[in-house]
Design a protein that fits this description.
Blueprint lengths: L1 H33 L2 E5 L1 H8 L5 E4 L3 H5 L7 E2 L7 H6 L7 E4 L4 H12 L4 E5 L2 H4 L1
Parallel strand pairs: 1-5, 2-3, 2-4, 4-5
């Protein structure tokens, strides 16, 4: 009887693990098939992504914040500006977009908006420029 209980417990564990792996695999396959990424990344990951020559680096802070200091080669498109959506729409939706603000709030909203607009790869700097 004890052997049957152990066998049952092992079987249940194996089935549970298999289902979890299948779910994770399905999610990863979906992301790969759509090619869509919308991810908050660390400072180190952000720096690595910046080495991609196709990456579009966008600072969504105000022009005053931008003029007070920004990441080299970043283009300033103010999230709160009247023309934000129009200016963002001018970017190439198929190329990676690296976005940041001061602390992560505006860039998170901007990243979500870009995803809705059809951008395929949007990376948001964790902690924003304050973490830079």
């Amino acid at each position: 009887m004890k052997k049957y209980i152990i066998l049952l417990a092992v079987s249940i564990t194996m089935i549970s693990c298999s289902d979890a792996q299948t779910t994770a695999k399905s999610k990863n396959q979906k992301e790969l098939s759509t090619g869509t990424v919308n991810k908050v990344v660390t400072k180190s990951e952000f720096k690595t992504l910046m080495t991609n020559k196709e990456a579009q680096l966008i600072d969504v802070r105000t022009s005053g914040e931008y003029n007070g200091g920004h990441i080299a080669n970043a283009k300033n498109i103010d999230f709160n500006g009247a023309n934000f959506k129009t200016n963002i729409a001018k970017l190439d939706k198929t190329k990676p977009v690296l976005v940041y603000c001061q602390a992560g709030g505006r860039s998170g909203k901007a990243a979500a908006m870009m995803k809705e607009m059809g951008f395929t790869k949007v990376y948001d700097l964790e902690g924003g420029y304050g973490n830079w």
